[in-house]
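Quick one - first record:
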Amino acid sequence: MDAQSRGRADEIDPADQWILNPRTGHYELRQNRSGAQAPAPAPSVAPQRRSRRAPTEVPGASPRTAPGTSPKSPSPAVPGPRRGDGPPGGRRPGRKRRAAGGGGRGRKALKVVGGGMAFLLVGGAVGGWLYYNHLNGNINTTDVGDAGSGGFKKDQPINILVIGTDKRTGSGNQGYGDKDSPGHADTTFLFHVSKDRTNATALSIPRDLITDIPDCPTKQPDGSTKTVPGEKGVRFNTSLGQSGRDPGCTMRTVKQLTGIPVDHFMMADFNAVKSLSSAVGGVPVCLEKPVDDEKSKLKLAAGEHRLEGEQALAFVRTRHAFGNESDLDRIKTQQQFLSSMIREMKSKNTLTSPKKLIGLAEAATKALSVDTGIGTIGKLQSLGGELKGINPKNITFTTLPVLDNPAERVKSTVVVNPSQAEPLLQMIRGDVSLTEVEAKEKAAADAAKDKQNAQLQGNRAPAGEVRVDVYNGGGPPGSAQTTLNWLHNSKGVPRASNLGNAPAKLEATTLEYAPNQADEARALADIMGLPASALKAGATDAAPRTPMKLTLGADFKGPGIPLTAPQQVPEGVQRVEADKAVCAK
């Protein structure tokens, strides 16, 4: 019996279910269910007065089992004592228990910490310190080397790649996916969280998209690194599993495809959908018409339903129940399902239920794999803290715009639609919200900020007086020279020089200048289409005839292509906000 059921966690504070064993110095679950304190074993010597600070928990210490509990019992691992001088829940020895309903301290089901998995992270916490060591043991990790950023930064956007694989792992999944397949990137979302942590965009990437897969260094079991050769003009879903490719290969493919750096990945199998949907008590969905799909085994009447387990998996897998039976319409169904799951996880019914929170902690850590950069509960807690405040109304699901592959007579694959895709990707790279509500609020804030931002306000120097050294710090090969030629021949900037490659790679293009070069900086920003965020003013004036420093980053696509992101979603781009309940049709 676990701690929750032993103490009936919906009615009794779980902290009251722990007592101090003076022989061991550790807290253990009480044995009776009445709520009365179980008698502690008599100490062999008179107990000493406890200091104000209890021994610090030793990482990796062996879990302890409550007296009388069988080692084979499914009880969670009991952590050793932590910093502080009281049992779990913060109650100190010797203090009287408050009367029910008295005082300013409300009941605490668990000291829940923020953490979780991608969209699910936004929905609620994944665990508490009671399960800390136990949950750490559940997490599967993959070392993706330098495919990711190595860790998110608090003052920068966060980009997490969420991959759903069709590998037949887990019991009951033998009939799904491809037999004997190592799995594909069957469902892929790039989850972009804004720099100010107020909004997020989930970009779906179609599995049948024709793209190029770069060379992929992959870690081998013996610690060595093997590079899997890249391929050109293949389906996106082969970026995972095939030829030994790991999730790092999918991360590299997405960065090359979108120009958006990926910080971390999270990968789910069929069991993740089943276990997570069951952990929240089912996910509400709505159908405009009845469904009876033999292939996915989904059979539902029109109207509202609450799906979990096998039914939930059938709902997100079906291709023949909705729309024109394509993968693109299946993506819409998956977005609707995930939006509903976010709402369910953010609901009071979930956040106030210890049973559901513990179930989510178990389900998430068992069913998902992550990169080593977020491969502990502590790191997931930190990530969860960054995401927990995002309102579902400010989470937008969209899909990378595509067209039918013109090279095929029988249409089975798609290619990127550049006229719609590039502006959309520019918005994500520029950290522009796709949510209408958030966009309006952000526009008002930006307007106020612009009044204080003098970088792009004021006089402009004539183009012929602009002096600048150009470096390539992440743009396409030869970018410094092509930019130099463009400035000289097309824009009348003769005092520009090509300084070759920058000493370090940059994600974003920057223009460094001294205070007395502000007029030149504004002029060059206008010519290049640089946003205010690209301008970096120094602290001291420069000597006469000193050039500014322009470093072309990974966001640079070519001279004459503005780096300022569009402020509106291109017409015709599909999107849906997570707070809106949409019926599948």
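second record:
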Amino acid sequence: MNKGIIFSISSILLFFSGCQSVEKQDAADTIYYGGDILTMEGKSPEYVEALAIKEGKILFAGAKSELHQYQGEKTAMQDLHGKTLIPGFIDAHSHITMGADAINQANLNPAPVGNVSTIADIIEELKELKNRLNSKEDEWLVGSGYDQDFLKEKRHPTRDDLDAQFPSNPVILLHTSGHMLVANSMALKLAGIDAKTKDPVGGTIVRKSDGSNEPNGLCQEMAAMAFMPFLSKPLPMNQEIRKMIQIQDYYASCGITTANDGLTSSDKMKILEATASEKKFKIDIIALPMFSLVNELVGTGRLKWGIYQNRLKYQGLKMTVDGSPQGKTAFLTKAYLTPVPGCNHDCKGFANLTQTDVNQLFLRCYSNKVQVFSHCNGDAAVDMMILAHQYAEKQVGKKDKDRRTTIIHSQIMRPDQMIQYKTEGLIPSFFTNHTYYWGDVHLANLGSKRASYLSPMKAAFDSGIPCTNHTDYTVTPMDQFFLLWTSVNRISRNGKIIGKDQRITPYQGLQALTIHAAYQYFEENTKGSLKKGKLADLAILNKNPLKVNRSEIKSISVVETIKNGKRIYRKK
């Protein structure tokens, strides 16, 4: 036989052998097709016909006609049957450890989240909690989510309301905003608060209206910190880990593949680290330690900032500059229009920290390349944060640094501040659920002009700012489609449109929950869109948010959630 022919046959066999090995190497674990696959890659909607994943990452996103090169004998072919596939949601701001704590707390929320409409309802929920936990007479009872604006009495509960039913148990009611609480007499005594206790800097102990200096039970902002040792007292670690597993399942059921824990205390850090150490996290957790830990954590080598370890990452430091607008403790440049508890004149809320405090926190973080996240609801608080950012940059070097400093909430801000956000490279993370839950309250407290510019997402998009949006869970439910609905429609409980000019498109709303949120955390190269090489973090929906009537977006549900290519939730 001719040697050339032998060589040619050998070459052909080698070629096909090579093709077989390539085919095996490139074969996908799973291929999705048969529905709307929305990539979130462009400035406008882009779809592909198929998505192939392998070893937890996206192998291919494109035309169905090209699938043959990724389909192997063991490839699972997943027909979407008309459902919609999108990137998994990235939680821009919430409190997952607080969600775990809420498992053992009374739900004091008004409808539609809870069933409380009177102070008597609060008492009944606490009694039910006491029975459910089989609590002894000296054990703490905690309820969360009460909102005085939606109580029939139109006021905060008082220590006297609680003492009448719980004279022996220490009782705490956490306000829905997370910025104040009501304590009964036993709880006040254990916290060391009485008529002689002075208001702390950045906080108010509201007094009785009888002219005495006795606390009435309401403690706002930094005054509530006296109760933290009791609120954060951990259970045995195995029970804490069990709660974390339970709450992350709730997040996964909402399509969340990356969750946030804002303002993480040292006790909660231990719980997160223990859960991570036992490899119990199904989703990624981004924790933001609280600002009071700055000297312990920033510049000390204690933490590896920005690096995942068993799905847990410490991304930056979280500070709280002011309070809540519905609680009327958000720090404003112009006064509230309605009476404010604990204040009698020119009531603008107040800052929790001094400008010097905020300046030094920024400087410490910027000097050590630690990302800053700061809670700012009022425009005066936003002014403080911008000044601190400028102060720190002047000290350590200017704007060539990619800091992605994030202003959490950015609610009652001004148009001139949006210009500064763009100039300074600051990222607003908005909270549009306020337009529904407290939109009518804000109209009364702030007036139409300020309320209409609440969480101004359209202005941010028009300015080219990669803004995000969040639920602030446990303040409002984690439901991402209700959040999307509020950003698109901005309709209050009473049916009023809160800022017609700030409504955004459904696609923009999804950007804020996916690719923009990835950018906020420096993860846009691995998450937030469906692109070859990115993590296979996915959510399958029963309907396409871009193809339903805008009023129906809130009724969309998550059918399945996939993290790194593995299913972590399926709707029953």
